[in-house]
Amino acid sequence: MEKKNAIIITAGHLDSTNGKTAHGLIRGTERFSIVGVIDSKSAGKDAGEVLDGKKRNIPVYASIADFAANSKEKAAYCIIGVATKGGAIPESLRAMLKEALDNGYSLINGLHEFISDIPELVDLARQKGVEIIDVRKSKKFKDLHFWTGKIKEVTCPKVAVLGTDCALGKRTTTRFLVQAMREAGYKAEMIYTGQTGWMQGANYGFVFDSTLNDFISGELEHAVHTCFKEANPDIIFIEGQSALRNPTGPAGAEWIVSADATTVILQHNPGRKHYKDLEFYPAYIHHPKDEIELIKMYGATTMAITLNTSGLNKEDARQYAKEYEAELKIPAVLPLEDGLDRLVPLLEELIKESKAKKE
Protein backbone atom coordinates (compact mmCIF):
# COMPACT_ATOMS: atom_id res chain seq x y z
CA MET A 1 0.00 0.00 0.00
CA GLU A 2 1.53 3.30 -1.13
CA LYS A 3 1.26 5.82 1.68
CA LYS A 4 0.18 9.36 0.78
CA ASN A 5 0.98 12.41 2.90
CA ALA A 6 -1.92 13.74 4.97
CA ILE A 7 -2.73 16.41 7.51
CA ILE A 8 -5.34 16.02 10.26
CA ILE A 9 -7.83 18.63 11.42
CA THR A 10 -8.54 18.49 15.17
CA ALA A 11 -9.73 22.11 15.61
CA GLY A 12 -8.77 22.54 19.25
CA HIS A 13 -9.57 18.97 20.35
CA LEU A 14 -6.21 17.27 19.93
CA ASP A 15 -5.82 17.02 23.70
CA SER A 16 -9.31 15.61 24.35
CA THR A 17 -11.12 12.30 23.79
CA ASN A 18 -13.04 14.02 20.96
CA GLY A 19 -9.83 13.75 18.95
CA LYS A 20 -9.64 9.96 19.13
CA THR A 21 -9.56 9.51 15.33
CA ALA A 22 -6.53 11.78 15.22
CA HIS A 23 -5.03 9.95 18.19
CA GLY A 24 -5.18 6.64 16.36
CA LEU A 25 -3.59 8.11 13.23
CA ILE A 26 -0.83 9.77 15.25
CA ARG A 27 -0.03 6.45 16.93
CA GLY A 28 0.22 4.74 13.55
CA THR A 29 -1.29 4.24 10.12
CA GLU A 30 -0.26 2.14 7.15
CA ARG A 31 -2.54 4.09 4.80
CA PHE A 32 -1.17 7.64 5.27
CA SER A 33 1.99 9.46 6.29
CA ILE A 34 0.84 12.09 8.76
CA VAL A 35 2.86 15.28 8.18
CA GLY A 36 0.92 17.74 10.31
CA VAL A 37 -2.02 18.36 12.62
CA ILE A 38 -4.17 21.49 12.43
CA ASP A 39 -5.06 22.59 15.97
CA SER A 40 -4.80 26.22 17.08
CA LYS A 41 -4.85 25.28 20.77
CA SER A 42 -1.73 23.07 20.54
CA ALA A 43 0.08 24.89 17.71
CA GLY A 44 3.86 24.76 17.86
CA LYS A 45 3.98 21.45 19.71
CA ASP A 46 4.64 17.88 18.61
CA ALA A 47 1.36 15.98 18.18
CA GLY A 48 2.75 12.87 19.85
CA GLU A 49 3.85 14.81 22.90
CA VAL A 50 0.39 16.37 23.19
CA LEU A 51 -1.20 12.93 22.91
CA ASP A 52 0.87 10.86 25.32
CA GLY A 53 4.22 12.54 25.90
CA LYS A 54 6.00 10.62 23.11
CA LYS A 55 7.64 12.70 20.38
CA ARG A 56 6.60 11.50 16.93
CA ASN A 57 7.89 14.35 14.73
CA ILE A 58 4.39 15.38 13.69
CA PRO A 59 4.18 19.19 14.02
CA VAL A 60 0.99 20.93 15.09
CA TYR A 61 0.04 24.02 13.07
CA ALA A 62 -2.41 26.79 13.95
CA SER A 63 -4.20 26.62 10.60
CA ILE A 64 -4.06 25.14 7.13
CA ALA A 65 -2.50 28.39 5.94
CA ASP A 66 0.16 28.00 8.63
CA PHE A 67 0.92 24.47 7.40
CA ALA A 68 1.03 25.55 3.75
CA ALA A 69 3.40 28.43 4.56
CA ASN A 70 5.75 26.69 6.97
CA SER A 71 5.85 22.95 6.35
CA LYS A 72 8.56 21.45 4.18
CA GLU A 73 6.17 18.58 3.46
CA LYS A 74 3.34 18.61 0.94
CA ALA A 75 0.02 16.90 1.65
CA ALA A 76 -2.36 15.06 -0.66
CA TYR A 77 -5.14 14.48 1.90
CA CYS A 78 -6.80 16.37 4.72
CA ILE A 79 -8.46 14.11 7.33
CA ILE A 80 -11.15 15.15 9.79
CA GLY A 81 -9.71 13.81 13.03
CA VAL A 82 -12.25 15.12 15.50
CA ALA A 83 -15.68 13.93 16.64
CA THR A 84 -18.35 16.63 16.52
CA LYS A 85 -21.69 16.82 18.30
CA GLY A 86 -24.03 14.43 16.54
CA GLY A 87 -21.40 13.73 13.89
CA ALA A 88 -22.40 16.90 12.04
CA ILE A 89 -20.12 19.23 10.10
CA PRO A 90 -20.53 22.69 11.69
CA GLU A 91 -19.92 25.92 9.77
CA SER A 92 -16.52 26.44 11.39
CA LEU A 93 -15.37 23.05 10.13
CA ARG A 94 -16.90 23.61 6.68
CA ALA A 95 -14.76 26.72 6.37
CA MET A 96 -11.63 24.69 7.14
CA LEU A 97 -12.63 22.00 4.63
CA LYS A 98 -13.17 24.67 1.98
CA GLU A 99 -9.69 26.01 2.71
CA ALA A 100 -8.26 22.48 2.39
CA LEU A 101 -9.94 22.06 -0.99
CA ASP A 102 -8.67 25.46 -2.11
CA ASN A 103 -5.17 24.21 -1.31
CA GLY A 104 -5.70 21.10 -3.43
CA TYR A 105 -6.15 18.51 -0.68
CA SER A 106 -8.54 15.59 -1.03
CA LEU A 107 -10.82 15.16 2.01
CA ILE A 108 -11.23 12.12 4.26
CA ASN A 109 -14.29 12.26 6.49
CA GLY A 110 -15.37 9.79 9.16
CA LEU A 111 -18.30 11.80 10.54
CA HIS A 112 -21.95 10.84 10.18
CA GLU A 113 -22.69 13.85 7.96
CA PHE A 114 -21.24 13.36 4.50
CA ILE A 115 -19.15 15.98 2.74
CA SER A 116 -20.53 14.58 -0.51
CA ASP A 117 -23.95 15.91 0.57
CA ILE A 118 -22.68 19.51 0.78
CA PRO A 119 -23.01 20.95 -2.76
CA GLU A 120 -20.58 23.83 -2.20
CA LEU A 121 -17.78 21.48 -1.20
CA VAL A 122 -18.62 18.91 -3.87
CA ASP A 123 -18.48 21.58 -6.58
CA LEU A 124 -15.17 22.91 -5.27
CA ALA A 125 -13.65 19.43 -5.10
CA ARG A 126 -14.70 18.86 -8.72
CA GLN A 127 -13.13 22.15 -9.78
CA LYS A 128 -9.87 21.28 -8.02
CA GLY A 129 -9.83 17.70 -9.31
CA VAL A 130 -9.57 16.14 -5.84
CA GLU A 131 -11.42 13.37 -3.99
CA ILE A 132 -14.03 13.35 -1.24
CA ILE A 133 -14.03 10.11 0.74
CA ASP A 134 -16.87 9.70 3.24
CA VAL A 135 -15.70 6.62 5.12
CA ARG A 136 -19.03 6.07 6.86
CA LYS A 137 -21.02 6.01 3.64
CA SER A 138 -23.05 2.82 3.58
CA LYS A 139 -22.39 0.08 1.07
CA LYS A 140 -24.87 -0.34 -1.75
CA PHE A 141 -27.55 -2.92 -1.02
CA LYS A 142 -26.14 -5.33 -3.61
CA ASP A 143 -22.79 -5.34 -1.79
CA LEU A 144 -24.18 -6.20 1.66
CA HIS A 145 -24.14 -9.71 3.12
CA PHE A 146 -26.52 -11.71 5.26
CA TRP A 147 -25.10 -14.14 7.81
CA THR A 148 -24.74 -17.64 6.29
CA GLY A 149 -22.84 -19.82 8.75
CA LYS A 150 -19.63 -19.83 6.71
CA ILE A 151 -17.86 -18.47 9.79
CA LYS A 152 -17.36 -22.13 10.79
CA GLU A 153 -14.90 -22.43 7.88
CA VAL A 154 -12.58 -20.04 9.72
CA THR A 155 -10.33 -22.36 11.70
CA CYS A 156 -7.75 -19.93 13.09
CA PRO A 157 -8.37 -18.25 16.47
CA LYS A 158 -10.65 -15.22 16.40
CA VAL A 159 -10.06 -12.85 19.34
CA ALA A 160 -12.71 -10.20 19.98
CA VAL A 161 -11.44 -7.06 21.69
CA LEU A 162 -14.49 -5.84 23.58
CA GLY A 163 -14.89 -3.13 26.20
CA THR A 164 -16.99 -2.11 29.17
CA ASP A 165 -17.71 1.26 27.47
CA CYS A 166 -17.08 3.17 24.26
CA ALA A 167 -14.02 5.40 23.70
CA LEU A 168 -11.77 3.14 25.77
CA GLY A 169 -9.06 2.38 23.22
CA LYS A 170 -10.29 -0.96 21.88
CA ARG A 171 -8.98 -0.15 18.40
CA THR A 172 -5.54 0.78 19.73
CA THR A 173 -5.35 -2.41 21.78
CA THR A 174 -6.38 -4.43 18.73
CA ARG A 175 -3.58 -2.87 16.68
CA PHE A 176 -1.08 -3.47 19.47
CA LEU A 177 -2.11 -7.15 19.59
CA VAL A 178 -1.60 -7.50 15.83
CA GLN A 179 1.81 -5.84 16.09
CA ALA A 180 2.88 -8.01 19.04
CA MET A 181 1.98 -11.23 17.24
CA ARG A 182 3.64 -10.13 14.01
CA GLU A 183 6.80 -9.29 15.94
CA ALA A 184 6.62 -12.78 17.44
CA GLY A 185 6.68 -14.23 13.91
CA TYR A 186 2.99 -14.93 13.32
CA LYS A 187 0.62 -13.83 10.56
CA ALA A 188 -1.90 -11.69 12.40
CA GLU A 189 -4.73 -9.63 10.91
CA MET A 190 -7.17 -7.06 12.25
CA ILE A 191 -10.85 -6.72 11.38
CA TYR A 192 -11.73 -3.03 11.63
CA THR A 193 -15.28 -2.08 12.61
CA GLY A 194 -14.95 1.73 12.67
CA GLN A 195 -13.83 4.48 10.32
CA THR A 196 -10.46 5.03 12.01
CA GLY A 197 -9.46 1.40 11.52
CA TRP A 198 -9.83 1.89 7.77
CA MET A 199 -7.87 5.15 7.95
CA GLN A 200 -5.09 3.34 9.77
CA GLY A 201 -4.79 0.86 6.93
CA ALA A 202 -6.57 -2.31 8.02
CA ASN A 203 -7.46 -4.35 4.93
CA TYR A 204 -10.53 -6.20 6.19
CA GLY A 205 -13.63 -4.95 7.92
CA PHE A 206 -16.66 -2.67 7.73
CA VAL A 207 -18.03 0.38 9.54
CA PHE A 208 -20.38 -1.02 12.16
CA ASP A 209 -22.44 2.07 12.90
CA SER A 210 -23.23 2.88 9.27
CA THR A 211 -24.42 -0.64 8.41
CA LEU A 212 -28.11 -1.55 8.31
CA ASN A 213 -28.91 -3.64 11.36
CA ASP A 214 -30.11 -6.64 9.34
CA PHE A 215 -26.67 -6.92 7.75
CA ILE A 216 -24.35 -6.37 10.72
CA SER A 217 -23.97 -10.06 11.53
CA GLY A 218 -23.43 -10.89 7.87
CA GLU A 219 -20.92 -8.10 7.26
CA LEU A 220 -18.95 -9.16 10.33
CA GLU A 221 -18.94 -12.78 9.21
CA HIS A 222 -18.03 -11.78 5.65
CA ALA A 223 -15.08 -9.63 6.80
CA VAL A 224 -13.64 -12.38 9.02
CA HIS A 225 -14.21 -15.10 6.41
CA THR A 226 -12.70 -13.03 3.59
CA CYS A 227 -9.67 -12.21 5.73
CA PHE A 228 -9.15 -15.90 6.55
CA LYS A 229 -9.47 -17.04 2.93
CA GLU A 230 -7.32 -14.29 1.39
CA ALA A 231 -4.65 -13.62 4.03
CA ASN A 232 -4.45 -17.10 5.61
CA PRO A 233 -3.58 -15.66 9.03
CA ASP A 234 -2.52 -17.57 12.11
CA ILE A 235 -4.82 -15.41 14.23
CA ILE A 236 -7.47 -12.72 13.70
CA PHE A 237 -8.23 -9.86 16.09
CA ILE A 238 -11.64 -8.15 15.81
CA GLU A 239 -12.01 -4.53 16.93
CA GLY A 240 -14.98 -4.08 19.25
CA GLN A 241 -17.48 -1.22 19.37
CA SER A 242 -19.34 0.37 22.28
CA ALA A 243 -20.14 -2.18 25.03
CA LEU A 244 -22.58 -4.97 25.74
CA ARG A 245 -24.56 -2.81 28.18
CA ASN A 246 -24.04 0.74 26.90
CA PRO A 247 -27.59 2.17 26.57
CA THR A 248 -26.63 4.54 23.73
CA GLY A 249 -25.65 1.68 21.46
CA PRO A 250 -25.18 -1.76 22.97
CA ALA A 251 -22.84 -3.94 20.93
CA GLY A 252 -20.66 -6.98 21.39
CA ALA A 253 -22.99 -9.96 21.14
CA GLU A 254 -22.41 -10.08 17.37
CA TRP A 255 -18.66 -10.49 17.90
CA ILE A 256 -19.22 -13.49 20.15
CA VAL A 257 -22.17 -15.12 18.42
CA SER A 258 -22.04 -14.17 14.72
CA ALA A 259 -18.24 -14.01 14.42
CA ASP A 260 -17.91 -17.09 16.63
CA ALA A 261 -15.12 -15.53 18.71
CA THR A 262 -12.67 -18.03 20.17
CA THR A 263 -12.10 -15.79 23.17
CA VAL A 264 -12.39 -12.19 24.35
CA ILE A 265 -9.92 -9.60 25.58
CA LEU A 266 -11.82 -7.06 27.67
CA GLN A 267 -10.81 -3.39 27.82
CA HIS A 268 -11.80 -1.48 30.96
CA ASN A 269 -11.14 1.81 32.72
CA PRO A 270 -11.37 1.30 36.50
CA GLY A 271 -11.82 5.01 37.13
CA ARG A 272 -14.83 5.43 34.84
CA LYS A 273 -18.12 4.81 36.66
CA HIS A 274 -20.69 6.21 34.19
CA TYR A 275 -20.91 5.36 30.51
CA LYS A 276 -19.34 8.07 28.37
CA ASP A 277 -21.47 11.23 28.30
CA LEU A 278 -24.20 9.55 30.38
CA GLU A 279 -23.44 11.06 33.77
CA PHE A 280 -27.08 12.19 33.93
CA TYR A 281 -28.50 8.67 33.43
CA PRO A 282 -28.78 5.92 36.08
CA ALA A 283 -26.71 3.34 34.23
CA TYR A 284 -23.28 2.39 35.55
CA ILE A 285 -20.31 0.49 34.15
CA HIS A 286 -20.12 -2.97 35.63
CA HIS A 287 -17.13 -4.55 37.32
CA PRO A 288 -15.09 -6.68 34.88
CA LYS A 289 -16.15 -9.80 36.79
CA ASP A 290 -19.80 -9.14 35.93
CA GLU A 291 -18.96 -8.38 32.29
CA ILE A 292 -16.96 -11.60 32.04
CA GLU A 293 -19.99 -13.51 33.35
CA LEU A 294 -22.17 -11.89 30.68
CA ILE A 295 -19.62 -12.73 27.98
CA LYS A 296 -19.64 -16.32 29.26
CA MET A 297 -23.43 -16.44 28.96
CA TYR A 298 -23.04 -15.49 25.30
CA GLY A 299 -20.65 -18.41 24.87
CA ALA A 300 -17.10 -17.06 25.08
CA THR A 301 -14.29 -17.02 27.60
CA THR A 302 -12.31 -13.92 28.54
CA MET A 303 -8.56 -14.50 28.40
CA ALA A 304 -7.28 -11.13 29.67
CA ILE A 305 -8.18 -7.66 30.90
CA THR A 306 -6.54 -4.62 29.28
CA LEU A 307 -6.71 -1.36 31.19
CA ASN A 308 -7.32 2.10 29.84
CA THR A 309 -5.62 4.32 32.43
CA SER A 310 -7.07 7.70 31.46
CA GLY A 311 -7.71 9.72 34.60
CA LEU A 312 -5.62 7.38 36.75
CA ASN A 313 -2.05 7.66 37.95
CA LYS A 314 0.17 4.69 37.12
CA GLU A 315 0.40 3.54 40.72
CA ASP A 316 -3.38 3.28 41.06
CA ALA A 317 -3.72 1.65 37.64
CA ARG A 318 -1.18 -1.04 38.50
CA GLN A 319 -2.94 -1.66 41.80
CA TYR A 320 -6.21 -2.20 39.95
CA ALA A 321 -4.44 -4.60 37.59
CA LYS A 322 -3.01 -6.53 40.53
CA GLU A 323 -6.42 -6.79 42.18
CA TYR A 324 -8.14 -7.92 38.97
CA GLU A 325 -5.54 -10.61 38.40
CA ALA A 326 -5.93 -11.94 41.93
CA GLU A 327 -9.72 -11.97 41.70
CA LEU A 328 -10.27 -13.07 38.10
CA LYS A 329 -7.24 -15.38 37.64
CA ILE A 330 -6.42 -13.92 34.23
CA PRO A 331 -3.75 -11.40 33.16
CA ALA A 332 -4.54 -7.70 33.54
CA VAL A 333 -2.19 -5.50 31.54
CA LEU A 334 -1.68 -1.82 30.64
CA PRO A 335 -1.27 -1.69 26.82
CA LEU A 336 -0.07 1.90 26.47
CA GLU A 337 2.34 1.74 29.38
CA ASP A 338 3.64 -1.84 29.15
CA GLY A 339 2.72 -3.19 25.73
CA LEU A 340 1.09 -6.59 25.21
CA ASP A 341 4.05 -8.97 24.94
CA ARG A 342 2.88 -10.68 28.10
CA LEU A 343 -0.17 -12.00 26.23
CA VAL A 344 1.83 -13.45 23.35
CA PRO A 345 2.42 -16.90 24.97
CA LEU A 346 -1.32 -17.26 25.65
CA LEU A 347 -2.16 -16.33 22.08
CA GLU A 348 0.48 -18.75 20.82
CA GLU A 349 -1.31 -21.51 22.72
CA LEU A 350 -4.55 -20.64 20.92
CA ILE A 351 -2.77 -20.93 17.58
CA LYS A 352 -1.21 -24.28 18.51
CA GLU A 353 -4.58 -25.63 19.63
CA SER A 354 -6.28 -24.53 16.41
CA LYS A 355 -3.58 -26.14 14.28
CA ALA A 356 -3.74 -29.35 16.29
CA LYS A 357 -7.48 -29.60 15.63
CA LYS A 358 -6.86 -29.38 11.87
CA GLU A 359 -4.28 -32.18 11.88
Walk me through what this model shows.
With 359 residues, the protein is an alpha/beta fold. It folds into two domains: 4-134, 3-Layer(aba) Sandwich (Rossmann fold); 143-358, Rossmann fold (3-Layer(aba) Sandwich). The chain has helices spanning 20-27, 47-52, 64-70, 91-102, 119-128, 170-183, 195-199, 213-231, 253-257, 288-298, 314-328, 335-338, 344-358; strands at 4-9, 32-38, 60-61, 77-80, 106-109, 132-134, 158-163, 188-192, 204-205, 235-239, 263-268, 301-307, 332-333. The protein has a seven-stranded parallel sheet with strand order 9-8-10-7-11-12-13, with helices on both faces. Helix 1 links the parallel strand 1 (4-9) and strand 2 (32-38). It starts with a strand and ends with a helix.
Give short descriptive properties of this protein.
359 residues; alpha/beta; Rossmann fold; 2 domains; 7-stranded parallel beta sheet; 6-stranded parallel beta sheet; 13 helices
Short description:
With 359 residues, the protein is an alpha/beta fold. The chain contains 13 helices and 13 strands. It folds into two domains: 4-134, Rossmann fold (3-Layer(aba) Sandwich); 143-358, P-loop containing nucleotide triphosphate hydrolases (Rossmann fold, 3-Layer(aba) Sandwich), CATH 3.40.50.300.
Task: Map the helices and strands.
Blueprint lengths: L3 E6 L10 H8 L4 E7 L8 H6 L7 E2 L2 H7 L6 E4 L10 H12 L3 E4 L9 H10 L3 E3 L23 E6 L6 H14 L4 E5 L2 H5 L4 E2 L7 H19 L3 E5 L13 H5 L5 E6 L19 H11 L2 E7 L6 H15 L3 E2 L1 H4 L5 H15 L1
Parallel strand pairs: 1-2, 1-4, 2-3, 4-5, 5-6, 7-10, 7-11, 8-9, 8-10, 11-12, 12-13
